[in-house]
Amino acid sequence: MTREGFWLFAYGSLMARPRLPWRERMEATMPGWTRRFWQGSHDHRGRPGAPGRVLTLVPEPDRGAPPCVGFLYFLPPAVARGALTRLDYREKNGYVRTFHPVIDRFGTAREALVYLAGPGNPAWLGPAPLSDLAAQICAAEGPSGTNTAYLFDLHRTLARLGLEDPHVSDLVGAVRARLNPA
Ligand code: BEZ
């Protein structure tokens, strides 16, 4: 992998701020997976005992649902090892390296590295009603800033790219309603 370089599929904050020496970037989809704010953050957008909620991807049970749209970055061999070290450190709170088939914008299937946090990891929070997700996000903050800023940044990034995600948009609506009650 580090000898040949690798493709990284980004679906969250890595879309806007990869801070990686990538050589190529393009839109891509990951069929059968969907974004969810089901992973806890004790180290970036929350604190131990008061975690925030951040993104992971989970399997989408609806086979007719649209695929998750994100970005593919190519990390060439010369920088691959260093990039992995940085990513592993940044995503250390429950995310693991996985490999999944993704479809690039030319329709070519590629095997890509995806950082995923799944059920059973120590920071996993799992599903909750929208109002509970919104309440937790409104309350949380950590060393990297508020959990609301993380959500709004992601929403802005997706909107700028023309990638609407109903889970993210619904959550933004619920958070705004809490912050600005009528
Ligand atoms: C990403 O943007 O790909 C990403 C988001 C959260 C954790 C790990 C990766």
List the SSEs and their pairings.
Layout: E1 6-10, H1 13-16, E2 24-30, E3 33-41, E4 52-59, E5 68-75, H2 77-90, E6 96-104, E7 109-116, H3 130-139, E8 141-142, E9 145-146, H4 147-160, H5 166-179
The protein binds benzoic acid.
The site of benzoic acid has 10 residues, from helix 1.
Structure characterization notes:
The chain is an alpha+beta fold. 31% of the residues lie in helices and 32% in strands. The protein has 5 helices and 9 strands. The longest helix has 14 residues, at 77-90. The structure holds benzoic acid.
What is the structure about, briefly put?
The protein has 182 residues and is an alpha+beta fold. It has a single domain, classed as Roll (Hypothetical upf0131 protein ytfp), CATH 3.10.490.10. The protein contains five helices and nine strands; from the N terminus they run E-H-E-E-E-E-H-E-E-H-E-E-H-H.
